[in-house]
Design goal:
By secondary structure, the chain is mainly beta. It contains no helices and six strands. The protein has one domain. Strands 1, 2, 3, 4, 5 and 6 form a six-stranded antiparallel sheet that branches.
Length: about 80
């Protein structure tokens, strides 16, 4: 199963024209695998946060994921696969 994993930083409602519906956007920051040689630890993906940001429509967000920081490690996180 392939996931696009990101953190929502900001939710915004943008109104461009009064006649058109507003845009409901989320500013997101992306996660990526921490290591290509060892991408999993105990069956959970090892992630790192990237300096890559995008705006997406809120309606495009499908699921909530549980990201756990790896304590005593800098910029290392786990995706909890066991709560889906």
């Amino acid at each position: 199963m392939i996931f696009n994993i990101f953190k929502v930083l900001l939710i915004a409602k943008i109104e461009i024209e009064k006649e058109k519906p507003p845009l409901n956007l989320a500013l997101i920051q992306w996660y990526d695998f921490k290591s290509q040689s060892q991408p999993y630890y105990h069956g959970c993906p090892r992630l790192q946060i990237k300096e890559l940001y995008n705006f997406i429509e809120i309606e495009a967000i499908q699921d909530i994921m549980h990201i756990i920081p790896r304590f005593k490690s800098k910029n290392e996180y786990f995706l909890n696969n066991y709560i889906f």
